[in-house]
Amino acid sequence: MRSVDRALRLLVSVAETADGLSLADAARSTSLAPSTALRQLRGLEAAGFVSRTPDGLFTAGPTLTRLGLRAAGRSPLAALAEPRLRTLARELEESAYLGVRSDADHGVYLAQAPSPLAIRHVSWLGELVRLEGSALGAALDGDVAADGVAVRSDVVEDGVTAVAAPVRGPGGEVLCAISVVGPGFRLSGAALAAARRAVAAEAARLAAEYGGAAVRSVA
Fold it and tell me: What is d(CA 211, CA 209) in angstroms, rounded to the nearest whole number?
């Protein structure tokens, strides 16, 4: 049991790090000796739960990613959001996402509908994203403009603009956020105004649908 506990602690540390974790940081974050941490990480790597980058950092492996996405796909919010995201991607021709808070500093995308265009934002599905300064972070904090939307450019990536709106529960609490992400040269002017309206509308529709689904499940 002690070995399992060590492995799980290391797995959580790796999974919560967006850019990879060094052996020294992994050992420090779990209060393990470096030799013990390395032995555990090698076992996790053999099972596909972690991977190692060319510069020696440990990141989430294919097994962990697959299981995480499978679990996320079972979320009722993700299932309800998928038609809303497809509508946004079709109407705006930009990639659309459903994001939730993972911890105090990060969010994770549970569902996505890709842009149909060749030049588009690549998928962040299942990846941790820093919330500080981002449109997703602002939406999850409820820090939005009068139209219910947050817009940020050149924050997570240069040349990328994101439009996000919170999805609120029956009590007004923020459950998640819908966002559209695309190249800044397209998401500007009239296109940006249209994106703001569409994202706000789809977030409101998802909130209404989720509230109804929750009531039906209780009944």
Answer: 5
